[in-house]
Amino acid sequence: MQLDLSxxxxxxxxxxxxxxxxxxxxxxxxxxxxxxxxxxxxxxKAATDALPRRQGQHHRxxxxxxxxxxxxxxxxxxxxxxxxxxILINNxxxxxxxxxxxxxxxxxxxxxxxxxxxxxxLVQALLPGMRASGYGRIVNIISTSVKEPIAxxxxxxxxxxxxxxxxxxxxxxxxxxxxxxxNVLPGYTRTARxxxxxxxxxxxxxRSEEEIAQGMLATxxxxxxxxxxxxxxxxxxxxxxxxxYVNGVSIAVDGGRTxxxx
Length: 262
Description:
By secondary structure, this protein is of the alpha/beta class. It has helices at 18-29, 41-49, 69-82, 105-133, 154-174, 192-205, 209-217, 228-238; strands at 9-13, 33-38, 60-63, 87-90, 136-141, 179-186, 250-253. It starts with 8 loop residues before the first strand and ends in a 9-residue tail after the last strand.
């Protein structure tokens, strides 16, 4: 199986922690040079310094807020001129919880900018390099809510579905250029995002965190939370030559929690 990514250059968004950081590690283990992106310079530097390195690998980082579209575009323009990229891991933190019907228009606008417009900006910046090399992998880390909306995550459900539809459209448009576009859908995974959701439930219900966690796990056939590295392994596989004919799919990594077949 061809899993070697030596000589490839990957951009991993939201890479200072959680699934993004774990994905950066997996890609580096497969030989890719990795550029890490998130808002926190200190956390990015630490994450970059901790990446595995082989001869010929060059890891970098840059700090930018993905919701600041123009700043993101400017930062990408400077970067791709020097270091064309063939792999994009499009990943960013989820919107705050709450019902859809109580969310203000600004909440939807912010989420749309942070997720869909940021993704579009990233793809447009990286496409020339992918086309020039005849190799491209775009992996969007979104949510199982694109298959089954999750109660209490109204804004997230809405914008994640938009990203999934955008990605499916791109997968048809770019396939002839040797570029694949796929989505990975994490289930309940031990990250800061899960910690935040648990804390919000504690505040809103008055129940203990353990009680809420057990209620979540009751819906997961594996009866445990996932680890960021387990999601990252699927992300990394989709970036390899072995996954060249996997295109336009949304893969749940959720211990079997999603009940739908498609």
